[in-house]
Design a protein that fits this description.
Layout lengths: L8 H6 L21 H6 L5 E3 L3 E7 L23 E7 L1 E10 H6 L9 H21 L15 H4 L7 E2 L27 E5 L4 H14 L17 E5 L1 H13 L16 E2 L2 E5 L11 E5 L3 E6 L5 E2 L3 E3 L2 E17 L6 E5 L1
Length: 344
């Protein structure tokens, strides 16, 4: 049998392995990609606020004051109540890490392989990414849940009927933002919905086109609008992405030798369709159309990933703790500009 380095006792006792200094392999998570935290880290997609909660004003209807008239007609001025308020509470999230003073002394060159503080901080931020992914693609259990953020299914609610039929999320009879969608006068507060049978051009894509077209609202007159345009992102699971890639390949007879030339290249109206691994366990195969002009994470000013300086832990004078805090929630200021399509 050939002799190897591990078989020579003196060599093992006197020599270190190649340690791959200052780097490590991270396999601490289960999903291939985390979508929520990177979106939150993009400051152009977030808003900052103050106060003890988040509130905005919504014009749900108009008075119908305009009419045709004739010469010497008598004026009849109509004044109606057209405004209401939407509001959501703040939610608070934290992650943290600690290090013992003597650990720092031990983790110095030349003995250091990897900087221990960086490992601890990375661990804390990975934990935050995992939590935010779960929160972003879910809703609170019900209106008594005082800790969860208002994720996508709270605002964008599925329904079997095509059109603006997104109702109140389960457990929230008051409606998203406190506006009850079951009240007839609040019908414009509903998101667009649809249901498909096949992931195909003739079924899903046809309904997708309709959803993208019918949710693109623009005010007929200039107003001081909260909204910042129609900037859509499309999000779904691999069941949908995989079928779409196959559909693209079947439409092109000149693909060359690449067996998966369309993988990772599926777009809808020049917008890349984003794979969300978290949604792979969702058997309804949802397709979310999120308009980032109206759908925004909002942060309490000064509490956007606020990372404290290392502080001495109580009753542990050699231990330093660091905390990263967020005070935030997710607001959708115009749900009818968003949609969800899911499988029958």
């Amino acid at each position: 049998m050939p002799l190897q380095g591990d078989d020579i006792a003196d060599l093992v006792a006197l020599t270190q392995r190649d340690l791959g200094r200052m780097n490590w392999t991270e396999i601490a998570t289960d999903l291939q990609e985390y979508v929520a935290l990177p979106q939150i880290l993009r400051k152009e997609r977030v808003r900052f606020g103050s106060g003890y909660g988040i509130q905005w004003q919504v014009m749900l209807t108009h008075s119908g004051a305009a009419k045709t008239t004739g010469l010497y007609a008598v004026d009849s001025v109509n004044v109606g109540d057209v405004m209401t308020n939407a509001n959501i509470p703040w939610r608070h999230i934290t992650t943290n890490y600690a290090i013992e003073r003597r650990e720092v002394a031990m983790n110095r060159n030349p003995a250091r392989i990897v900087e221990l503080v960086k490992v601890r901080r990375s661990d804390a931020m990975i934990s935050l990414a995992v939590l935010m992914e779960t929160q972003f693609w879910n809703k609170p259990a019900d209106s008594t849940d005082a800790s969860s953020i208002f994720g996508v299914p709270y605002w964008i609610v599925s329904n079997a009927t095509t059109g603006f039929n997104g109702g109140n999320a389960a457990g929230f009879t008051g409606g998203p933002g406190g506006i009850d969608r079951t009240v007839a006068t609040n019908s414009r507060w509903k998101n667009y919905t649809g249901r498909y049978v096949n992931i195909s051009v003739s079924d899903l894509v046809v309904k997708w086109r309709a959803a993208a077209t019918k949710t693109k609202f623009m005010s007929p007159t200039p107003i001081p609008d909260y909204n910042t345009g129609n900037r859509y992102g499309y999000y779904t699971n691999y069941d949908v992405i995989g079928e779409m890639e196959s559909a693209l390949e079947s439409r092109n007879s000149n693909l060359g030798n690449d067996l998966a030339v369309k993988d990772g290249r599926v777009v809808f109206r020049q917008v890349p369709i984003h794979w969300v691994p978290y949604l792979d366990d969702n058997t309804t195969d949802p397709v979310y159309g999120i308009n980032w002009g109206v759908f925004k994470p909002v942060f309490l000013a000064g509490e956007y990933l606020n990372e404290s300086r290392p502080q001495r832990a109580a009753n542990q004078h050699t231990v330093l703790q660091t905390h990263v805090d967020l005070t935030c929630n997710i607001e959708c200021r115009d749900p009818r500009r968003c949609f969800v399509l899911d499988k029958a």
